[in-house]
Each structure stands twice: as structure tokens, then as C-alpha cells.
Write a structure and sequence with these properties.
The complex is a heterodimer of chains A (357) and B (480). By secondary structure, chain A is an alpha+beta fold. The two termini of chain A are 14 Å apart. Among the domains of chain A are: 167 residues, Uridine Diphospho-n-acetylenolpyruvylglucosamine Reductase, domain 3 (2-Layer Sandwich); 82 residues, BMC (bacterial microcompartment) domain (Alpha-Beta Plaits). In chain A, α7 packs across α8 and α7 packs antiparallel against α10. Chain A contains 12 helices and 18 strands. Chain B has 480 residues and is an alpha+beta fold. Chain B has 4 domains: 86 residues, 2-Layer Sandwich (Uridine Diphospho-n-acetylenolpyruvylglucosamine Reductase, domain 2), CATH 3.30.43; 117 residues, 2-Layer Sandwich (Uridine Diphospho-n-acetylenolpyruvylglucosamine Reductase, domain 3), CATH 3.30.465; 116 residues, Alpha-Beta Plaits, CATH 3.30.70.2190; 112 residues, 2-Layer Sandwich (Alpha-Beta Plaits). Chain B is 35% helix and 19% strand. Chain B has a 7-stranded antiparallel β-sheet, with helices on both faces. Chain B has a 5-stranded antiparallel β-sheet with strand order 5-6-10-8-9. Chain B has a 4-stranded mixed β-sheet with strand order 1-2-4-3. In chain B, β8 and β9 form a beta hairpin. The longest helix of chain B has 18 residues. Chain B is globular and about 70 Å long. The two termini of chain B are 44 Å apart. Classes of the chains: A alpha+beta (357), B alpha+beta (480).
């Protein structure tokens, strides 16, 4: 790649770069570089000098992070205050800005929502050379348009995220995980039972590979162990072989890692909780390994690139996005033309010259 | 006006109102002191009719405002003079209930509480504005409505997964859907809370969640407001996230007690309502902690609701707080600003100073968990100049909250009422970025004009051609 690397150290400098007329793409940790569009940038806007824990207001459960701050550093700062940023996507070097710009998430999505749900405010550098702030620094606020949500997941194509304000949550006093193994039908039954149970699960995931799979349910809080035991009971009722696992760090690390396959192909399926058995069936038929958010409905299939069109067709109408995969693969699949036209109008307003690639 | 004829053809003569007396109902929303008579109010009965109405407005180059139940408190549904008011109260069908997937799809005129009723007793829809019996889901979407349980459960925006929207040019577009994590821009996130300025939602898909296993509610009484505030801080610092944390001050307690006879003492400085919900095993431990924290901060009494009836009594006083102000003051003005919760004592002190300076009583009711204050400024509109002074005092309170790092509105919206304070929170470049979004959806600015933005701005043409990549041109690739 021949792009020139620039490291602006302020929002203003970032905005000047965007207004320079060159094709620009922002880059944080580079863990999701392949998710961006087909057009090659001339300038690679590194957010490395736009990091920093700018505010950590423990009493208010809010924090202000520079976009280039590694997510791991943000988590460490929060943990020191007994808090967490409830975002746990894969990617050891991912930055806060990159995770938000790609709308990536991990197993904590089950209880706390996606990045868009944790955003309170955002500062962005725009292609017209201005710096714009939206939202605020309080956990409840409806003043102005919610541009932070619009920019979350926009992959730098509307502007570059330079700072985010996020809602924090208390770090659970303790966690415990129940794990239940079984076939697709039992996993699907167990997932629905657990999603409907009043256990306030932190995470509810599924995994599948080569004819077998498991359901993982994590509880948190002062009653974590008792509730994990209850989750294991519900799993057994559904026909799963279940046990409570004490040390659960590795299990969840594996779930996160399953969302990626650099060099291979990963298809992210936006499904529904009650359709889990069907998705598992498709995965099995095509020899795909799967991790998924059983209570949310989203799954990641690691599969052969050649299987993508067939898997997409079998999973209709669920939107399936190729996150890792060879060039030339249809990444987004079929999309509604009226919606695409509206998205284009939004892009034209924020990037009339089409330089944010 | 041939537009009226067209509207009659679309919706039927009986659903098009032009008569001065019948239009009176629609002159204002919940912000009663602002009134405007629209040229016509139209009550479409289906999403298709809404689309045709909007299309007719577009062709007649006539501005329009969508209205649900009209309970909004910022004038967001205030009609435009000579414009069309699109009343959505006839679109009140719940179209689908899908409990295994936790989804409800409904029309915009469905009442907020009707959603929870449709999924009871296993599930509920968390956003719960005080007007939830009548306020509509469409209005909740427009305003990103909150309620008393936001601290734990979030806002409307966290529960909308899909929207069918009629754009201001009459085109129909589906944003989001039943599934999450769809490709493309998060236009659902951009639309929710846009106060009716980007289009009108005709079909809404919501996420509903399982009801908690246990709900434990208590009310604690304190001599001093500072002690109640400190208690909230200590509860949160201890790692609890209660479903609700509500504070009422002496004046609002007195008003509410006169209205509801809920049994609250009248000689205390503040009452703190704490509602813990979730798994029983978790709530029991947390409840004991909360009671201990209240006592440590000098609570004079702590009343734990023994049953649902007692819980209802606690909440009745809180919900009645706004309306009950009418018992101690001929008129009142509700504010809706937000502060970082840790600045509570300082800001309440400032409100007290302002109240004394203006010689007008201010009662304070607030969602203490998220720092959302609802100061109620009491005044007598019959006294010349007093309503103006009340409005001025309310404005000073808003500015004090912004100065403390807060927001001009937590849940009522900007509408007409707060737009003049937008520049206190946002710089010109920030407002210009908002306008880019607005113009993408509504370049002619016919949907709810005159709301949100402090000063009118034109959209203009998009400067320069948008360069599409050859792959996009060929339909092979799209920008995500």
C-alpha cells in the first residue's frame, strides 16, 4: 500500500487533513482494515496521536477517550476505578475509535448493547475542515441529533472520530459461567430458555464446530455463582450436558477469537435468537465453525469463501456481511435500493467530494 | 386550498379538519402556553394514507408536523401556521408480537403502555415516561423518550430495531429491521430522537425484555437534600445499578402528598425512592446494602414497600408530582435539564439562589441516577410579568446546568421551547453538522420546520458531484 501516513495530534489537524482533497482513511490499531471500501486511500490518517484517557468520571459513570486510545488501555483505566467499558470485541490492538467506527462488539453485547448504545457523545473531524461535537457528557441527553450513532459503524466514511464520551458500568463483583454441550436442537432450546429467564446474564453465547456445540452463560454480581448454577439447571432441562465453570476467562477469549479469521473468511449473520437451530444447521452443512450471541441473534461463521453465496441464500432474509475474506467477495450482499439511496444522500452531505474512503 | 381537497380524497372528508373550533384541540401539545393553528389537521388511518398525505404536502410545497398523543413538553408537535398537522392517533394497531425473539411491531399511534401490556406478563417495554398511559410509541421514537428507569434500562433509542419511515418527499424507506447488526449506516440511531424533522415513522419494531424476577422498592426520608444526594452517590459507588433512583424535595413532596395522600411525611427535606430489580438473589443483598447506606447518611426513616400495593403508593406520589404542583401554585413551568450527578449539591444550591432572587418557588423532582432534573417553577400567570419572569428563571436554571457540564434536555426534547439554548451547548460547527443530517433527509425542510435548530438554515445543493467509485457505479461494491 502506497498511502502516505499522517498522525494528526489534534481534532483540528485531523479536520485539515480531511479537507486537503486527498482520499483519506482513518486507521486505529489496523485490526479491521479489510472492512473498509474498495477504493485505495492516498492518506492514511493514523489516530495514534489522538489517544488518551481524557476524563474518567467514576462517580458519574462516564469517560472521555481519545479515538486512538487502545481499548485495552481504556479497560485498564476503568478497572482501576472499579468500572468497565462494556465493550469486549476481539483484536488485542484495537482502539476505542476503531471499535466504534466499525461498530464491533463482543459477548458483553448481550447485556450492555453495542458500541452505539454506550455512546453519550462524540467529536468528529469533517471533510469540510470543521470539528463537530454532538451529544454531551451526561448519561441522559436528547439535545440535538444523535450523530454519534450515525458515525458508529460508518467506517470513517462520514468523517473521522477523534473523541468519544461513553457510559461506564460497575465491574461485576464476581462472575461465573455455565457451559452446556449438546446438539443443535438442545442448544436452541437452551438458548431460548436462558434468554427468557430472569437471570440478568452478562453474556450468552453459543459455539459450534464439526457436529457439536456448546452454550455459555455468564452471570455477574454478588450472586454470580448461585445464578450460574441456575443457568446450568436450565441447560440440563433443555437436554444439554451442563456444568458451572469457575475460571471462565479462557472460554470467553475463545468466543471473541472466533469472530475473526485473518487470511480466512468470516461471515457475520444478523439473525434472530429463535432461528438459532436453523443457523447452526446451515453452518453444519457447509462445514463452518460458528460463534454467536445466542440472545442477540448475531453469529460469525468461519467458512470457505466459496460457500458464502450458498450460505447467504440459505439464510435469507438475514443480512450476512463478510468481515474477513478475500478481495472480490460481495461483502454486504443484496441491499434495499431505497435505503442505499438514502445512505448515499447522507454521505453526499458529509463528504460531497467523496474523499472519505 | 386544493391540498385540502386532495387530503379529503386520501383520508375521507371526516378525517380532515379545517373548522376553527375542531382545530382548537390540536393547537398545542403538552407545552400549553404555546399555540398555533394549522391550516388543516388530517387523521390518516393507514401507513399508506400517511405516505400519500406526505406526498401531497411535498407536491403542494406545504410544511407539515406529525403528532401522536400531544403529550410532549417541548412544543415538538406545535403546528406550523398554514401548515398541515398529521395526527397519527388512528394508527394504533399492534402488528406483531414475537416473544421468543423479544420483538413487537406496531403502528406509531400505539400507546407506550399498550406495548408492555401486549407482552405481559413475561416481558415489558422499558422506556416509561410519566405519560405512558397515553403517549404514543411514534412520539417516543421522535423524542427518544426516557422515564424513571433509564439509569438501568436506557432510552427508547436502545429499544428500536427497525422503522418504516415516510421521508419528507413521500418516499418510503425501511431503516433497520427485526435483526440487529445489519450492514450500512445506523440510520435508525440517527432517526430516533430527531423530533419529527427527518420524516414520519409509520411502522416501528421494538425490542422488549423479560420482566425482572424481583422488584424491591423503598423510600427514604432525609432532613437535608445533600444527604439524599450523597446516598445516591454512595449506592452507585457500591456497584449497584438500581432500576430507578428518584428524589423529591420538600415542596414537591408537599404538593404530591396533598394530591395523593400516599402517606409521606411533610416535614422532611427530601425523599429518595430506590427501586432495585433483577434476580432475587442479587436484589436481596443489594437491598440490605441500600438500606444501610441510607441510614449511614442520616435517613430519618426508610420504608420498604411490603407488597405491590405499597409500591404503587410510593410511585403514585412521584408520578403525580407534576400535576400536583397545581395545588400549590396556579401555574408552573417544567424544566428538564441534566447535570453530572456528582455536581448535584452545587447545582441545587444555585437553583435555590436563583429561586430566592426571582422570588418564585422552585420545586425539584428528579431522576437522580442519571442527573436529570425536573425543576418546577411555580408562578401566577394572572400577576402581570410573572410568567415572563418564570420563563427567565427556568432559562437561568438551564444555563446553570449546562455550565456544570450538563444538557439542556434529558428527555423532553428541544422542540420550540429549548432551541434558543442550543447555542449554549453547541458551537456553530456542531449545529452545521446537525444540519447536514437534516438536509440529507429533508432538503426542503418541510418536516416539522422551526424545531430543534436555534436559527433557520438553508440546505442548499450538495457542493460538487459525489464521486462514485467505478465498482459502486457497476453495482459490484457499496460503501459500508
Amino acid at each position: 500500500m502506497s498511502a502516505r501516513v499522517e498522525r494528526p495530534s489534534s481534532a483540528r489537524e485531523a479536520a485539515e487533513l480531511l479537507a486537503s482533497g486527498a482520499r483519506v482513511r482513518p486507521r486505529g490499531g489496523g485490526t479491521k482494515w479489510a472492512w473498509a471500501g474498495a477504493e485505495e486511500p492516498e492518506v492514511l490518517l493514523s489516530t495514534a496521536a489522538l489517544g488518551g484517557v481524557r476524563e474518567l468520571n467514576a462517580g458519574d459513570l462516564t469517560a472521555v477517550f481519545g479515538a486512538g486510545l487502545p481499548l485495552a488501555d481504556a479497560q485498564a483505566a476503568c478497572a482501576e476505578a472499579g468500572l468497565m467499558l462494556a465493550l469486549d470485541p476481539p483484536g488485542a490492538s484495537a482502539t476505542v475509535g476503531g471499535v466504534v467506527a466499525a461498530a464491533d462488539s463482543g459477548p458483553l453485547r448481550h447485556r450492555y448493547g453495542a458500541a452505539r448504545d454506550l455512546l453519550l457523545g462524540m467529536t468528529v473531524a469533517l471533510a469540510d475542515g470543521t470539528v463537530a461535537r454532538s451529544g454531551g457528557k451526561v448519561i441522559k441527553n436528547v439535545a440535538g441529533y444523535d450523530l454519534a450513532k450515525l458515525f458508529a459503524g460508518s467506517l470513517g466514511t462520514l468523517g473521522t472520530i477523534v473523541e468519544v464520551v461513553v457510559r461506564l458500568h460497575p465491574l461485576p463483583a464476581a462472575t461465573a459461567t455455565a457451559l452446556g454441550r449438546g446438539d443443535a436442537a438442545a442448544l436452541a432450546r437452551g438458548a431460548l430458555a436462558l434468554a427468557a429467564a430472569p437471570l440478568e446474564l452478562e453474556r450468552l453465547d453459543v459455539r459450534w464446530a464439526a457436529g457439536g456445540g456448546a452454550l455459555l452463560a455468564q452471570t455477574g454480581g454478588v450472586s454470580a455463582e448461585a445464578r450460574a448454577a441456575r443457568a446450568a439447571e436450565l441447560m440440563r432441562d433443555a437436554g444439554l450436558h451442563a456444568a458451572a465453570e469457575g475460571d471462565d476467562g479462557l472460554l470467553w477469549e475463545e468466543q471473541r477469537a472466533g469472530q475473526r479469521d485473518p487470511g480466512g473468511t468470516v461471515l457475520r449473520v444478523a439473525g434472530l435468537p429463535a432461528e438459532l437451530e436453523r443457523v447452526l444447521g446451515v453452518a453444519e452443512r457447509h462445514g463452518a465453525a460458528l460463534v454467536g450471541r445466542a440472545g442477540v441473534g448475531t453469529s460469525w461463521l468461519r467458512l470457505d469463501a466459496a460457500a458464502v453465496p450458498a450460505v447467504r441464500a440459505e439464510l435469507t432474509p438475514f443480512p450476512c456481511v463478510v468481515t474477513d475474506g478475500p478481495a472480490g467477495l460481495d461483502r454486504l450482499g443484496p441491499r434495499d435500493t431505497a435505503l442505499v439511496a438514502l445512505e448515499r444522500r447522507v454521505r453526499e452531505r458529509f463528504d460531497p467530494a467523496g474523499v472519505l474512503v | 386550498m386544493s391540498l385540502v381537497g386532495e387530503l379529503e380524497r386520501i383520508c375521507g372528508r371526516g378525517h380532515v379538519l379545517t373548522d376553527r373550533d375542531r382545530l382548537r384541540t390540536y393547537e398545542s401539545d403538552g407545552l400549553l402556553h404555546l399555540r398555533e393553528r394549522p391550516a388543516v389537521a388530517v387523521l390518516p388511518g393507514t401507513a399508506k394514507e400517511v405516505r400519500r398525505v406526505v406526498r401531497a404536502c411535498h407536491e403542494a410545497e406545504t410544511p407539515w408536523v406529525a403528532r401522536g398523543a400531544g403529550t410532549g413538553l417541548s412544543g415538538g408537535a406545535l403546528p406550523v401556521a398554514d401548515g398541515v398537522l398529521i395526527v397519527l392517533s388512528r394508527l394504533r394497531r399492534i402488528l406483531a408480537v414475537d416473544l421468543p425473539n423479544g420483538r413487537v411491531t406496531c403502528e406509531p399511534g400505539v400507546a407506550n403502555l399498550a406495548v408492555s401490556r401486549a407482552v405481559a406478563p413475561t416481558h415489558f417495554f422499558p422506556p416509561d415516561p410519566s405519560s405512558q398511559v397515553v403517549c404514543t410509541v411514534g412520539g417516543n421514537v421522535a423524542e427518544n423518550s426516557g422515564g424513571a428507569h433509564c439509569f438501568k434500562y436506557g432510552f427508547t433509542t436502545n429499544y428500536v430495531t427497525g422503522l418504516e419511515v415516510v421521508l419528507p418527499d413521500g418516499e418510503l424507506v425501511v431503516l433497520g429491521g427485526t435483526e440487529l447488526d445489519r450492514p450500512g449506516l445506523d440510520l435508525v440511531g440517527a432517526f430516533v430522537g430527531s423530533e419529527g424533522t427527518l420524516g414520519v415513522a409509520t411502522r416501528i419494531t421494538l425490542r422488549v425484555v423479560p420482566v425482572p424476577e424481583t422488584i424491591r422498592t423503598l423510600v427514604a426520608y432525609f432532613d437535608a437534600m445533600e444527604d439524599a444526594g450523597q446516598t445516591v452517590s454512595d449506592i452507585v459507588a457500591g456497584g449497584s445499578v438500581p432500576g430507578a433512583l428518584e428524589i423529591m424535595d420538600r415542596l414537591s413532596l408537599r404538593a404530591a402528598e396533598e394530591a395523593t395522600a400516599a402517606g409521606n411525611p411533610l416535614d422532611v427535606g427530601a425523599a429518595l425512592i430506590v427501586e432495585l430489580d433483577g434476580p432475587t438473589a442479587e436484589c436481596d443483598v443489594r437491598l440490605a446494602e441500600v438500606v444501610a447506606v441510607c441510614k449511614r447518611n442520616g435517613a430519618r426513616g426508610v420504608r420498604v414497600a411490603a407488597d405491590e400495593a405499597e409500591r404503587e403508593l410510593v410511585w403514585r406520589a412521584r408520578r403525580a408530582a407534576f400535576a400536583a404542583m397545581g395545588r400549590i401554585s396556579p401555574s408552573y413551568y417544567v424544566q428538564d435539564s441534566v447535570i453530572p450527578r456528582t455536581r448535584l449539591a452545587e447545582v441545587l444550591g444555585r437553583i435555590e439562589e436563583l429561586s430566592a432572587g426571582y422570588g418564585l418557588a422552585v420545586a425539584n423532582v428528579f431522576h437522580a441516577g442519571d442527573g436529570n432534573l425536573h425543576p418546577l417553577v411555580a408562578y401566577d400567570a394572572r400577576v402581570p410579568g410573572e410568567s415572563e419572569r418564570a420563563e427567565e428563571l427556568a432559562g437561568e436554571i438551564v444555563l446553570a446546568c449546562v455550565a456544570a457540564g450538563g444538557s439542556i434536555t434529558g428527555e423532553h426534547g428541544v422542540g420550540v421551547d429549548k432551541k434558543r439554548y442550543m447555542p449554549a451547548m453547541f458551537a456553530d460547527d456542531d449545529l452545521a453538522a446537525f444540519q447536514k443530517l437534516r438536509c440529507a433527509f429533508d432538503p426542503a425542510q418541510r418536516a416539522n420546520p422551526g424545531k430543534v435548530m436555534p436559527t433557520p438554515r438553508l440546505c442548499g445543493e450538495v457542493p460538487g458531484p459525489y464521486r462514485r467509485h467505478p465498482l459502486e457505479e457497476a453495482g459490484v461494491a457499496e460503501r459500508l
